Please model this.
Amino acid sequence: MEISALLTSAGINVGLCAVFLSLYSVLRKQPGNINVYFGRRLAEEHGRAHDSFTIERLVPSASWIVKACEHTEAEILQVAGLDAVVFLRIVIFSIRIFSIAGLVCIFGVLPVNYFGQEMLHKHIPSESLDVFTIANVKEGSRWLWVHCLALYVITSSACVLLYHEYKGISMMRLSHITGSPPNPSHFSVLVRAIPLSKDEPLGDTIRNFFSNYHGSSYLSHQMIYRAGKVQILLSNAEKVYRKFVHLKVAAFDQNDRPSIYRCGLCGGRPNTFHLHYNEFELDAKKTDIDQPDIIRDHKDCSAAFVFFKTRYAAIVASQVLQSSNPMSWVTDLAPEPHDVYWSNLWIPYRQLWIRRIATLIASVVFMFLFLIPVTFVQGLTQLDHLQQRFPFLNGISKKTFIIKIVTGYLPSVILLLFLYTVPPVMMLFSAVEGFISRSGRKKSACCKVLYFTIWNVFFVNVLSGSVISQLDAITRPKHIPSHLAEAIPKQATFFITYVLTSGWASLCSEIMQLFPLIYNFVRKFVLGGKDDPESVPSFPYHTEVPKVLLFGLLGFTCSILAPLILPFLLIYFCLGYVVYRNQILNVYGSKYETGGRIWPIVHNTTVFSLVLTQIIALGVFGIKHSPVSLGFTIPLLICTLLFNEYCRRRFYPIFKSLSAQDLIEMDREDEQTGRMEEIHQQLLTAYCQFSPSKGVISLCDEDAVMDQTDCSEELKIIR
Model:
C-alpha cells in the first residue's frame, strides 16, 4: 500500500469523525434526546427537559469537551465509582506510554527504517509503506542497535508506569473496601449443592447445619427459589407499578391528543395505563397470590444465602470446605445485592463444569468460523496476489481511486462490522457458563472478547496475510518468532487502517449512541412512548476494555517494526479519554461495583504485549543477523517476566480476596459504635429475588419471617 492510500483512509475517517462530533454537539442540546445523552444525570436529578427553542441548539460547539475534562478524579469516583476510574486509568496509562514510544520511535527508529536501504526514494505520497518499516533495513546493519535501545526504553517505561498504576489502584481498592458503607456481601455467603433430606425441609437442613458448625457466628439464611408462575405475575405487577409511578411523577395535559406520528397500527389511546390496569385486573381474577398452588410453584434450588454476624466469619466460611465431600455444601462469598444474577443461582452445582466445557468448545468453534471473514478481508489487502490467481479482477487495477478504497479502507470496515457480533455472543456464552454475578458474567465476557480479538485481529490477520502471498509455506512452532517478524511489517498498513476505522470511527459512534438514538426516535414518535428515567445503561466494559487493550497490543508490537502507527494510536487514546469521560459522567450509570477488579486483566495483557513484542524482536534481529541486539533482548525478556511475577505476588491477592486484618478492624469499629445490630437487621432484606426498590413484591427471608419480623406470609406486597 502506498502512503496515498493510507491518507485516503485517514481522510475518510477524519471527515466521518468531524461529522459525527458536530452532530453530537447539536443532538445533545435537543430536549427530546435528553434520556439518550444524559441518562445517568436524568436518573439521579429527576430533571426534565425544557422545550424553549434557541438558535444555540442548532450550532455545533466544543463545550462538551471542556465540561468532560473539568471534573477531577475524586468527583468521578464519587459519581461513577471505582470501576469507572480504573477504566479511565487504563486510557491515561496508554496515553503516557505511547507518548514516550511515539517520541522515541518517530524521531529515532523511523529515520533508520526509511534510510535502511541504499535506494532512490520517491515522492513521499507515492512511497510504499514498506519503506517505513523495519523490513527496509538491510541485513547486518549496524543501526539495529537503535531498535534495541528503543525497545529497552519502551519496556522500562511501561513497567514503571504499570507498577505505579497497580500500586495506586490497589490503594484505592483498599480505601473503597474500608471507607464505604457496610456492604451486605461482606456478611453473606452463597451456599450451593445443599444435600436434600426426606425427613426435613431444606430450610431446616440449612439452619441445623450452620447452627451446628457455625453456631457462634451464624445469623440467618434466605432460601433461593426458581419461580414459575409467580415470577411472571410479579414481572407484570412490576410493569404496572413502574407505569403508575411514571404517571404520578410526570405532568400530563388532560387534553392530550393522540400523537400524529403514530402509524395507526401500533398506536392506541395516549393514556395506556387503563390497558395495563385491565390486564392486571384480569390476571388477578385468574390467580390469587395467596393461593397455596402458587406458593408451591416456588421450587427449592438447593441454594441459599447464609448470613453471618461478622465479616470475618463470613470470609472464613466462604473459603473453607464445609464437608468432606467437596461437591456438597459449596460456599462462595456472595456478590453485592444489585450484582446478583438471579437466573443462574438455580443451576445445579454439578452442571457448572459441563457448562464451562461446552462454552469453551463453543467459543473455539466460533473463533474458527470467524476465520472466513478474516481471510476474505486479508484478500482485499493483498489485491495484487488475488489478481494473479483471479484474472477477472485485473480490471480493478486500472482505477486508482477504487484501489485506494478497496485496499486502504474497505478491509477494516468489513472486519469491524463482523466484530460487532462478537460481544453479544460472548455475553451469551458467559451467561450460559453459570456465573452468579452480573460483574462476573461481564468480566468473563470481557476476557472472551479480548482473547477473540487478539487472536482474530492480530494473529489470524498476520498469518492469513502471509499465507495468501505464500500458499506453499509451512510454518513450524520453532519458526514462529521469525515468521511473525516477517509478517507483521507486511500487515502494518492494515493495522493502521484498522486503528482509523475501529478506533476513531467507533469512538464517534459511541458518543453518538446511534442505536439508542434510533430506538428513542421510534419509541417516542412512532410508538408514542414516554421517557423512562430508570432505564439507564451500564458501561460496556466487555466491549471497550478489550478494544483499548487490543490497540495497546498493536502499538507495542508495531512500535519498532512500523512506527507510523503510533501517532494514529495516540490520537485515538486522547479522543477516547474525552469521549469516555463524557459518557461516564452523563450517559452510563453504575448498577454495581467490583472495586477495580478489571485491572489485573489489564496488567497481564500489557505484560503479554511486551513479551510478545520482545519475542518478535528476537525474530527480527535473528533475520537481520544482528547478534548484539539479539543478545541484549534476551535479558530484557527475562526481566519483564520477573517484573510480572513480582506484581502478581505483591498486588494481585488484594484484588482476589479480602484481608482478615481489614475485616476484623471493620467489625470492631461497627461493634464499638453500635451499628452491628442495625447491619444485622438490614441483612434480612438485602437479598430479595424481587427487590422492593425495583418491583412490587419481595420474598421474605425464611428465618426473618419466623424469628425477626412479624410477617405471617412468605410472600407480601409492598409499595
